[in-house]
Protein: ArsR family transcriptional regulator
Organism: Thiothrix eikelboomii
Amino acid sequence: MTSLSLEVFTKALADQTRLRILSLLVQYPELCVCELTEALGLAQPKISRHLAILREASVLQDRKLGLWVHYQLHPQLSPWAQAMLKQLQLASQDESIYQEDSRRLQAITRIKMICSESSMSLTGQGS
C-alpha cells in the first residue's frame, strides 16, 4: 500500500479535470491518454499535465504500450482512498459534465483498438 497522506490525496483531487479523469478510471480499469482526451474533450497536453499530478501523488499508475501511455488507479492505493474515489464517482453521476464524459467514452470504445493497432504496426507486431 502506498503511504498516501490525506493532504496529498485531497490536493490531487482539487481540480475538476482531475475529478473527471478519476471518475472515468473508477469505472474503467485502464484508459489511455487518447481515450481520456476524447472523453473529456480537452487538449492532450492539459490531460497529460493532470495525469502527471495524479501519478506524482501516487493516485494513478501508468504503463507505456508502444506510443501510448495507459493509466489506472494505483493498485496499492489505500482502501480509504479507493472508497473515497468510489463515493466521488457515485456522487458525480448526477452532474451533466460527468454524464457527458461517460457517454463520450462509451461512444469511442473503438479508440482502444485503434491505439493498440497503431502500437502494433509501429513496433512491427501487427504484420
Notes: Strands lie at 31-32, 60-65, 68-73. Helices lie at 6-13, 16-27, 33-40, 44-56, 79-92, 96-107, 110-123. Confidence is low (pLDDT under 50) at residues 119-127.
